[in-house]
Each structure stands twice: as structure tokens, then as C-alpha cells.
Amino acid sequence: xxxxxxxxxxxxxxxxxxxxxxxxxxAADRAYPPPLDKAQTVSAEVLDADGLLLRAFATPESRWRxxxxxxxxxxxxxKMLVAYEDQRFYQHGGIDLKAMGRAAVQLLVNGRIVSxxxxxxxxxxxxxxxREARSYSAKLLQIARAIQIERRLDKQEILELYLTYxxxxxNLEGVRAASLAYFGKEPGRLTVAEAALLVxxxxxxxxxxxxxxxxxxxxxxxxxLSRPAVASLTGEGEAExxxxxxLPRRRLQLPALAAHMxxxxxxxxxxVPRYQSTLKRGIQQKLEDVAREASAKLEPKASLAMVMADAxxxxxxxxxxxxxYFDASRAGWIDMTRVLRSPGSTxxxxxxxxxxxxxxxxxxxxxxxxxxxxxxxxxxxxDMSYQGDVTVRQALQLSLNxxxxxxxxxxxxxxxxxxxxxxxxxxxxxxxEAPGLAxxxxxxGITLKDLVQAYAALANGGQPVRLGxxxxxxxxxxxxxxxxxxxxxxxxxxxxxDVLPPTGSRRxxxxxxxxxxxxxxxxxxxGYDGRHVLGVWVGRPDNGAVPGIAGYQTAAxxxxxxxxxxxxxxxxxxxxxxxxxxxxxxxxxxxxxxFSMTAxxxxxxxxxxxxxxxxxxxxxAKVDLGAQTGEIxxxxxxxxxxxxPFRWLANGKPLTDLSRRRTNNWLPEGAGFSTLTVIxxxxxxxxxxxxxE
Length: 693
Known about the structure:
By secondary structure, the protein is of the alpha+beta class. It is about 35% helix and about 15% strand. The strands form seven sheets. A five-stranded antiparallel sheet has the order 7-6-14-13-12, with helices on both faces. The protein has a five-stranded mixed sheet with strand order 18-24-23-20-21, with no helix packed on it. A four-stranded mixed sheet has the order 9-8-15-16. Helix 8 crosses helix 9, helix 14 packs across helix 16 (about 400-410) and helix 14 packs across helix 19.
């Protein structure tokens, strides 16, 4: 009885001791947790639309440490890693007692370390809390940390920490950074030889670097391949064949695409580990290659920029801000896609589109290309020569200045600026200046991105879209009226798609326009198919002149080369809208056979009659008629040109009987948008939209 009591007392003592020890260890574990928060510092990454790496940024300690998940890595590599480093990884709780026992016996027998007993969990503990000195106390702490880590993380999370932090030589950490630097690819698909090398390197990363110590790297790789547990995973004969594969002899640069966009994203939202973009890596890479090759043919201080967008969604699929981000002589750090420059003749298609929309001209309408004076403004053609009488089609294809200004004078510069606002494009006028005829030849400032946004409406059947910025600004279809009517869009596209490509370029099925700013400072070319639009700018970032550059000779070849090499399948332009066709001049109505101006400035045709034009209220005007008070005042309507009598309509309803007067009154039914139309006796019409307040 006494013996049983003594036994019970002793057992209780040991249980209490064990419980106390467990409580103490748990308290110590809570008081001194492993520094897992340090494991959150990884390289920031900018990804393309498909999740592919565009650019990575080094950590504050200048490490290339790319966050890696199990899904990022070849499954065979993972199996080889566990088989080589820690075969019982999925069974132990942080330490492998069997391996530790074996290592201790080998140390006693041989007097030196023959094999290690460090588990993957212990290696993770060492990676997140490195210690310079190798000592028994450091090893004991590592064991304790491994147990702590196992209490907090599951096996997949522990393995992912290893895959992210394992050293691979130099400032490379993690299997993704190593695979990109040594093999030029993500580790999702690795050969047996590549996987074996990546398993071997972390054991002695500096001494086994294949770019510096190839023989040591070869021996380390062979040590992995010859391990029976690894050989059983690779398949019969695979390990032997892999041992004969070559090694990478140089370290590659990690992807560094879309530098300007990536830098802007980092500045705007610092601390974000991953930035998702709308860019396509394949297209971005090709356009950067084209930019680099083209810049070699330019003068040393000249640069170039490109923007390619999906005209239906507004998403930017490629953006090149300069010829070379790191070229100081070209001020490569400046993102020239967002700098205001003179657009030259690239706005002319929109002038012609308005003229088509208003029925002032058709493609085969004759128009004069002769010296002209517009109240003191005397435009001249680029080559200082004149063609005489040309068709509207020829005038746009040849980018003649005088005909474009004649049409702009007829449609009105303010109306053109209003149409740009529909597309959320805001050309910048010189200070304190109203829209004038000079805007037709580049007398405004516009960015390449905005110019591409305007052309995107042409490629999208007239429906404006707002381009995103590639990262955080969402692209969207604008809830606004069309930039131009479908008939006008088709006429402009039909003309531009038949412009001959620059010398040495093949036809691609795109419509395009070029432009050169005053003083040879900017060369432009913008092209589009039925889906994508691409804009190219060439010039000096300091706005200096570049003698000899021109849109057709300088920018257009780059446009065609970039479109051809981008990999984008050319989408055909839409078919013409119903009742729209290119008529021969003899088939045109008499009023559209020739465009000219009367001495009084009214639009005229060969019959000396103008098509009707509503001069008040102007397009898009907001008129306060007292709608808020309930007592609406009538609005005076005024028109120019046309053959009387006239029929006025408001929102499709006739106002009064036919009238021969060029003024009329309209009493709105209420506030909001209304459409006003006038039709002359020749069947020609003019329309404006106004907002009644």
C-alpha cells in the first residue's frame, strides 16, 4: 500500500512537472514568437493582364525576392526538393529525430559531420532569422524556431517561405528569381537538369553559382541527381541524361518592361506587393524592341513613344514612354506619352469627319488647294506647293493644309473642340486664346495618350472610350454621344485605309494618319484597324527641333513595324453603314460637286448655294430659358446657307409651317437635352444638340 502511494505521488509529480514545463514552454513561445512578420518583405511586382511578370523591384535591402507559391513551381521540382532536403517533411513537427540521431552517430564515429539533420522548417527558421556564427546555441535556437513555425503555419506555407527565401547566389533569393535569372523563365516548367540545379544551389549558393563556378555547380547538381530518392522520381534514365545537360553560364536580367508605367504605379501606391496591369507582355516586349531599334536611327537626343490600346474596351495593351528609360542623352526617364506636344496634321481626320457628317462634302467633292487668306491667317502646305483642284479624298490622303482649313472654317473650330470633349479629350490652347483655325494644323497641345483615345473612337464606330492608365485607372466606354456619326466614321476610315504605306513597309489593312509639327519638333503617326489603335511620337523631350523628321518618313515606318511585329491579328474595318457609299463625282448632288466659299464667307457649292448651317444655338450649348422657374422663354434659332423654304424640327417634331426666313422661335417643353434640325428645299439638313436649363 505504501509502495503504491509512493508510485502515485511520483507519477503525479512528473505529470505536474510536465504540465508546468508545457505551460512554461507555451508562455515562452508566446513571449518570443518567430519573426514571421519579416517574411512579408518581398519584391514589388508589376504583372501583365495574364499575370505574367513585366517588372520587379528589388527589396529595400537590394534583394531580388519574388513571392512564390506552390502553384508557381514545377511539381517535379517540389518532389525533388523534399526528397533531397527533408524526406520526412510531411511527417515531422519541425525536427527529424531519426535524421538527428543518424547525424549524431556519424559525428561520433567519423569525428566530423557526414550528413546534416536540418529540416526544411529549420532552414526556414535560419532564413527569416539569420545568424552569422555557427554554434550549438544557434542550432538549438533554430530547432526551437522550427517547432514554433510548425505550430503557426501548415506545411504548404512553410514550403512557400522556403521557395521565396532560399538563397541562390548574389542578391537572388527564392526559386522564381533564380529561375528567371539563370534560365530566363518562370519555374512552372523545369527540365530535370534545371530542377536539380535549383535544388542544389541553396546549400552553398556563392560557391555553386553556375555563372562563376560552373564545375562546382555541375558537381552539386550531380549530387542531387545521384541521390536514390531523387532518381526514383525522375524516371528511368532521366537523371543520367540530365547530368549531360549544359549549365547557364551567365546571369540574366530580370524582366524590366513598361518602366515608366511601373515607376508611376510604385510612386502612386507604395508598399503594394503586386500591381495588375492591362498590358500584354508579348506586345509590350515587341514594341520596346521596335523602339530600341528605331532609336538607333535617330539623332542622339531624339526619343520616341508609343501607345497601343484596345479601342473597344479602352485598355492599354502596350505603352512605351521613351526609346530607353536609362538613356540620359535622350532624357529616357521622361514619359513622353503624357507630355503635351503639337499634333501637327493628326487632327485633320476629325475636321473631315465633321464635314462629312454635316453633308458639306463627299469623298469626290472638288475642293481648292490654292493660297488663301482667312482673315489674316494664311496656311501653307508642308512642301510649300499647291495642287490646285483636288477631291476631298485626295486632300485628306495628301494631308493638304489649305483644304483642311477651308473645311474647318466651315464647320467651326469650336464645334471641333466640343466633339473632342465627347471623347474626354481636352486639347490645350495657348493661354487666353479661343479656338481658331490654327488648331487644324497643330495649334494646340495634346498628349500621345489623348490622341490615341480620340482615334480609338474612330476604330470603335464613333463610340468614345476612356483609356485606362494601365494600372489603377479603369478603362471604360464613355456614356456620351458618338464622336462622329457612323457615315462620317466610315468615310474617314475608307480614305485613311487607302493611304500608301511608307517606303519599305507592306500594307497591313490599317487606316493611318501622319503629322509633323511646326519647326520639325514632333513627328506623329496614328493607325487603327477594326479593334486596336496605335500611336507613335518621335521628337526631342526638350522640345528642340530635329531637322529632317516628318510624320510620313519618320513616324509612319515605326508605326507599321510595330503593328506588324506586335502579334495583334488585324481586325477588318466594319462594312459601310446602310445607304453609305463612295459616289463618283458625276453621281453627287449638284451641291456636293464642288466646295468653295462665297465672298461673304457663306458655304457655297457650284450652284453658289450653301448647305444649311445652324449658327445659333451652337452645338452642345447650355441655354438658360427659365425652365427651373416653370416659365420657359422661347429660344431664337438662326441659320446660314441653304435654299429656302426651311422646315424646322425639335426632337423630330415639326415646329411650324415652311418658312423662308433664316430665323425662327422655339418654345421647349421642358428642361434637358433637345435636338434641333433644319431641312432646306434641296433636302440638306443641319442638326445641333442643346441643353435647356
